[in-house]
Design a protein that fits this description.
alpha+beta, five-stranded antiparallel sheet, 4 helices, 11 strands, 27% strand, globular
């Protein structure tokens, strides 16, 4: 069963309607859903791999425990529901500036990359954001201050105004 079929089955089991797609990637896909009242929409993310689901769920739980809905001026989706069986997260939808998609993050320790890999990675990130890089760098520092090491830096995940 592909992720869309899994999303359809999950939505049907929860009485939700899938109303559109927000994104797709290597870790999973994200759809907009709405409930029976049909007034409010939110995001449904299904993960392809259990490890990415577990990490992202743990990050959102940590952010929730800390009461964080934004950092350094960037909104963060709120975890509404997690389903371990379906590898599904239901999340609030945010508008730019935002940070989302924590499936590649690490908790409590940075990944063990050689210095030259970090230098190249940060150069690539800097080039993606140009003059806005200091703003993104502040966000990454604010995230890291909470023990979350964010690795999937690009404008689809860290969106500016």
């Amino acid at each position: 069963m592909n992720l869309k079929e899994k999303a359809d089955a999950y939505a049907a089991s929860r009485g939700l309607e899938i109303t559109g797609i927000l994104g797709d990637g290597t870790q999973g896909n994200v759809w907009t859903v709405r409930g029976k009242n049909k007034l409010i929409s939110w995001a449904l993310k299904l993960h392809a791999r259990p490890q990415n689901y577990r990490v992202e769920k743990e990050v959102y739980l940590r952010l929730q425990d800390l009461g964080l809905v934004s950092l350094a001026g960037f909104d963060i989706p709120t975890l509404l529901r997690a389903d371990d069986f379906h590898l599904a997260l239901e999340l609030s939808i945010v508008s730019p500036p935002y940070v989302l998609d924590f499936a590649q993050a690490t908790l409590d320790w940075p990944p063990d990359f050689p210095d030259e890999v970090w230098e190249e990675t940060r150069r690539r990130w800097r080039n993606l954001y140009g003059v806005e890089w200091p703003r993104v760098e502040r966000l990454l520092g604010a995230i890291e201050a909470h023990g979350i090491h964010y690795l999937d830096v690009h404008p689809g995940n860290i969106a500016l105004l």
